[in-house]
Specification:
Blueprint (H helix, E strand, L loop, with lengths): L2 E7 L5 H18 L4 E7 L4 E8 L11 H13 L5 E5 L9
Antiparallel strand pairs: 1-3, 1-4, 2-3
Length: 98
């Protein structure tokens, strides 16, 4: 399993927009409970966000099929202060996080 880590800056005037959209995405995930998917959104002190996505081997990423995620993705175009930084990472160790 590999992780994708995205760091995104958000225009200050859109902080409430992104938080509302993220809340909808997590509500939809809670309803659907897709297997093989781990997803987290963290607000960092500088008001940027870290988004962590893990999709289990042999599993398709179901996020793009969720309407709330589609709305979130569409909104990001106007909310971000710049291009997201996308990294791929491997888990070296974890205690109850991954």
């Amino acid at each position: 399993m590999a992780l994708q880590i995205l760091r995104v800056g958000v225009k200050p005037e859109h902080a409430t927009d992104i938080e509302a959209a993220v809340t909808k995405v997590f509500a939809a995930l809670g309803e659907r409970q897709p297997d093989g998917l781990r997803y987290a959104s963290l607000r960092v002190a500088d008001d940027s966000y870290l988004i962590i996505l893990e999709v289990a081997d042999g599993t398709q990423n179901s996020l793009p099929s969720i309407p709330a995620f589609q709305e979130f993705q569409a909104g990001l175009r106007g909310w971000l202060s710049g291009a997201p930084a996308i990294e791929t990472a491997s888990i070296v160790g974890s205690y109850r996080v991954f």
